[in-house]
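Chain A, query sequence.
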Amino acid sequence: MQKANKLIVINSAPYETRVATLESGILVELLIERRGDQNIVGNIYKGKVIRVLPGMQAAFVDIGMDKAGFLFAGDFVTPQLELDSDGSEEPVLPEDIGIREARYPQEHFLPPIEGLIREGQHILVQVAKEPLGTKGARITSHITLPGRYLVLLTWSAHIGISRRIDDAEERERLSRLVEKIRPEGMGAIVRTAAEGMSEAELKADMDYLVCLWEAIRKKSEASSAPFLVHRELSLSLRAVRDLFSADMDRIVVDSEEEHARIRGFAAQFFPRIQERIELFGGPQPIFEHHGIEIELARALDKKVWLKSGGYIVIEQTEALTVIDVNTGKYVGRTSLEETTIKINLEAVREIVYQLRLRNIGGIITIDFIDMKSEENREKVYQALVDTLRADRSKTTICKISELGLVEMTRKRVRE
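Chain A, predicted structure.
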């Protein structure tokens, strides 16, 4: 049997579920969900405003958790949609992530929050970011419902197309189809998986999402705040919905119960992929069989060796992540500049791999080895930009400085 190009491996244990994505046999992404600590991003709550903060243009909302949710004014009013450089509208949210983070050109365009909501008011909100440390969950009233091919925007008539669909004719075709099938007053983001799909398939996805939204609204109207109105799918089912793509060879799962559940879910919503969902029956544990456990042990090390003999050091703090590139054992052959550019380019590939594998988000500073040549600095910067195209998370990168420093931000994917 030909080796899989891309593979999703699901390990379902009594206390946790682990989902690994392999590309050409290499682990590139790992997601973990523990039974008692289920991810709440995407959950929809009927909340009660308990405090309005004009000085911060934000409000605290009781959603029934230990800490109140935090709602910015910009996450309550309809945002201005950004235009791409070619004039085509693009979604502001990270690629294929269901929660939108609104962005405004200038903050003073926002109406004051005290004129938008009041204490004691009941509002429907969605969790955009998990609680972290002493902070409560980041919430938004811009509720989005992700399907297989579309993300329904319940609050905007905007239509956006995934940046990963780069064929102009296909983008135009999909835009016309979504315009035709979308409900009045609602919009959608067309996901990468929609490329090549028929009108009937997109309409079925849209119909499902609209029915789901109506059910959520009715449930909210019949409930008292605070109340969990809608829970996001489990990790294994999200993997089927969000990670499986046309170039994915198969999904392999090691639990009969989870295998049956995933196949049932696929049969109902994504019948095309049902036959590519397999039950693992090997003598070894599934992660060990695919060499994933070894990669996980490597991911725990602060120091990561490169094939040339150089290495990178990854230091994570609450404020930011610092990645330092070092020559290590590699001494080069011709000149110091040649040694430097070789190590830096090799480090780029490993750094992007580690960002995805460790799910590193927030502010990231990369300290490359100093390069005298402006041409070489540009070459390393462009290599970083190009390599990050494979990352489904949103990244923003600043130009490399004369000291070899790169500052960037990355949107963390669900834990």
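Residues 6-34+235-292 form a domain with the Nucleotidyltransferase; domain 5 fold (CATH 3.30.420.60). The CA atoms of residues 181 and 203 lie 6 Å apart.
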